[in-house]
Amino acid sequence: MGRAADRDPVLDHFTDPGDDRAGDFEGEVERMQTALVTGANRGIGKAIASALLHAGLEVRVGARDLAEGEAVAAEIGAQAMALDLTDPQTFHDAITDVTVLVNNAGVLWDGGVFDDPGRFEETLQVSVNGPYALIRAALPAMTAAGYGRVVNVSSDWGSFTQGLGGGGAYAIGKAAMNALTVIADRDTPDFIKINSMCPGWVQTRMGGADATRSPEEAADTAVWLATLPGDGPSGGFFRDREPLSW
After folding, report:
1. For the whole model, what pTM was predicted?
2. Cβ neighbours of residue 54 closer than 8 Å, sequence gap 6 or more
3. Which of 19, 140, 202, 225 gives 218 a disulfide partner, CB atoms 3.0 to 4.6 angstroms apart?
4. pLDDT at residue 178 above 50?
C-alpha cells in the first residue's frame, strides 16, 4: 500500500469491496435518491427521467444544450444540468450527490470506422470515457449512502454474439461500454448495482420513425435497473428485463 499522500481521494471513499451490504438496502429507492440521466433532453433519456420522477426519485436532466434541458426539466418537474460528455469540465456539478446514474447519451454516424478519426474519438468519449468518469465521480456519494445504481444504455449492436452492428464506431463504443459494466461491477462494493441494457429499436431521432418501440417502452428496463432492490442483479446485460448475451 502506498503512502497516505499517494492515495486517490476518490478511492479513499470506498468501503471494502468485499463488504456485501446489498441485503440491507432492499426498498431503499423509497427514500429520496438523486438520479442523473445523461442525454435526457429528448427520446429515451427524457422517458427515463420522467419515469424515475414518477418512481419517487429526484432527477437531474443532463443535456449538452442547457436550454433544451431546461425546457424538458420544466415539463416533467426535474432539474436541468449542463452536461457535455465531450467536456469533462461540465461533470462536477451534475454528478454531485448522485446515487443513481443512467449513462444514456450516445453517438451514431454513418460511414466506415476509419473515415473520421475525430468522430471515432467523440464516440469513445461519449460511450466509454465519459461514463467511466461519471461513475468514478459518483462513487463517493454512493458509498457514503451505502446505495448506488448505474445503468449503461448500450445496444445489442455492441454484442459480439449479435454481430456488432451500426455505422462508424458505434459498435466499438457500445462493446466497450459493456466491458466497462462488467469490470466496474467487479471493482465496486456489492451495494452498487451496475448493469447494461439494450432499449431495442426506438422511435427517436437516432432510431427513426419506422422503429418499433416508443421511448416509454424502451425506458422500462432502464428504470427497472435504476430502482433494483438490494438483491437485484449486477454486472449483467438486459433487454425487456431479461438477460442478453454479450
Report:
1. 0.85
2. none
3. 202
4. yes
Please pick, among 91, 147, 170, 237, the residue that the annotation labels catalytic: 170
Of 20 and 122, the one with more pLDDT: 122
Residue 23 CB neighbour total at 10 angstroms: 11
Helix (H, G, I), strand (E, B) or coil at 194: strand
Provide the pLDDT for residue 20. Answer: 40
* Residue 132 DSSP symbol: H
Tell me how far CA of residue 164 lies from CA of 130, 158, 168, in angstroms: 21, 5, 11
**AA identity, residue 133:** A
Distances (CA, A) of 226 to 33, 34, 113, 124: 10, 11, 32, 23
Q: Centre a 10 Å sphere on the Cβ of residue 88 and count the other Cβ atoms it contains.
A: 14
132 is catalytic: no
d(CA 26, CA 236): 19
Amino acid 201 reads: W
Residue 16 confidence (pLDDT) above 60: no
- The three three-digit cell numbers of residue 91, written as one number: 461533470
Give how far Cα 49 sits from Cα of 40, 75, 86, 231, Å: 7, 11, 21, 24
User: Of the candidates 86, 51, 84, which has an alpha carbon nearest to the alpha carbon of residue 69?
Assistant: 84
Identify which of 39, 17, 11 has the alpha carbon closest to the alpha carbon of residue 235. Answer: 17
Q: Which of 41, 29, 141 is nearest to 81 (CA)?
A: 41
